[in-house]
Amino acid sequence: MTKKIVLLPGDGVGPEVVREARAVLEQVGRTFGHTFEFSEHAIGGAAIDSHDDPLPKSTLDACKAADAVLLGAVGGPKWDDPKRKVRPEQGLLGLRRGLGLYANLRPVRVHPKLAAASPLKADKVEGVDILFVRELTGGLYFGEPRFREQLEGKVRAVDTLEYTDEEVRRVVRLAFRLAGPRRKRVTSVDKANVIETSRLWRETATEVHKEFPDVALEHQLVDSCAMRLITAARSFDVIVTENMFGDILTDEASVLAGSLGLLPSASLGDGTNGVYEPIHGSAPDIAGKDIANPTGTILSAAMLLRHSLGLTAEAEAVERAVDDVINSGARTADMAGAGGESLSTSAFGQRVLGAIRK
Ligand SMILES: NC(=O)C1=CN([C@@H]2O[C@H](COP(=O)(O)OP(=O)(O)OC[C@H]3O[C@@H](n4cnc5c(N)ncnc54)[C@H](O)[C@@H]3O)[C@@H](O)[C@H]2O)C=CC1
Ligand SMILES: CC(C)CC(=O)C(=O)O
Ligand SMILES: [Mg+2]
Q: Where along the sequence does the record put site: Important for catalysis (predicted)?
């Protein structure tokens, strides 16, 4: 059966890395005998330019009608003026909300051949295998009210941090489920010593834990978690946390893996549809140079095959191909610390494509 995949290349390096992931998916289709129907739509800054809207209705409608969505990244200096009413990032937030994608899965694994790409000592990063489950449609990025005002001669800005117990429950429950077939250990990260929403988060996680007696639960404050990620990352299995903490901790965790460009993600809700995207942004500093690492996006395509299309063998074929290519010594510039042969984005993508086997 034909599967509909919407591509949202977005801004900066987004189109460069999505191009490679699409080529890999096409190769999977040829190798395994599937038909994937691709359609490309505008989001972010590109959509502000073309539609005056970071998430045009036509884009959201296409994503709703698709089996899965593969996204590059949004944002960049062109749209960064703080006085702008509309920003590229609103397109991505609107898409996550619009599709009800409340959980963002961000696996962080250290490839043995890339341990030296990390600025951390090899003994701190070897063997790391963490699954972050980040809440994605609540918290500070969505809370209302948010505004700026003049108050007694000062400028005052307000954001709102808000969670309901139900929002916490569903994402924590997913984290426990995902921990079952892994090492059965969930670390719930919060700032319960200071923040009310975190106290609700901790209480709710403790309550949900009763449904999963064979999985261990520990609570950790976000500040010491940030430190433990550097000093003892192997001690983590599944980490579940709220939207902004998860956003920040996963960029930090990418340093363990060796590069932000390596890490994939899956944004999931209750159905099978999902948005798959690398965890990095639009990387304006390297955009247009054919040097971005497409691995995070290619591995996101593997997650798409597994979670939205139910194609496990195909997902494994992509992951194996990436492994083989890295084992062969192929690198992009950001992985140079691990030695090997430095390739362009497109040359690296071609190597992965060539390594897809049934
Ligand atoms: N999901 C998304 O679309 C996200 C968008 N952004 C947006 O991206 C723009 C730039 O944000 P930054 O803070 O610079 O974060 P960024 O993630 O774009 O870049 C941070 C650093 O990582 C490097 N990097 C990122 N992706 C890479 C790749 N594939 N290969 C090699 N190196 C890579 C960049 O060159 C840069 O040095 C902003 O407009 C921001 O709002 C940021 C994060 C997520
Ligand atoms: C809205 C995005 C720019 C937030 C982000 O950095 C991310 O989801 O990784
Ligand atoms: Mg981020």
A: 141, 191
For the CA of 75, the nearest atom of ligand 2: 3
> Do both 132 and 243 map to the same domain?
yes
Domain range spanning residue 248? Answer: 119-257
Q: What percent of the chain has pLDDT over 90?
A: 98
- Residue 147 is part of a domain; what is its CATH number? 3.40.718.10
**Do 228 and 276 reside in the same domain of the chain?**
no
In sequence order, what DSSP letters do the residues of 34-101 get, joined into one string? --EEEEE---HHHHHHHHSSSS-HHHHHHHHHSSEEEEEE---GGG--TT-S--HHHHHHHHHHHTT-
pTM: 0.98
| Residue in 137, 247, 297, 300 to alter for ligand 2 test, most ligand atoms within 8 A of Cβ | 247
Measured in Å, residue 158 CA sits from the centre of ligand 3 at: 21
Cα–Cα distance between 194 and 198 in angstroms, integer?
8
**Structural domain contains residue 182:** yes
89 lines ligand 1 (CB under 6 A): yes
Nearest ligand to the CA atom of 136? 2
Please choose, from the candidates 80, 133, 341, the residue with its C-alpha nearest in 3D space to the C-alpha of residue 246.
133
CA-closest residue to ligand 1 atom 3: 73
Rounded to an integer, what distance in angstroms lies between the CA atom of residue 31 and that of residue 251? Answer: 34
Query: What ipTM goes with this model?
Result: 0.99
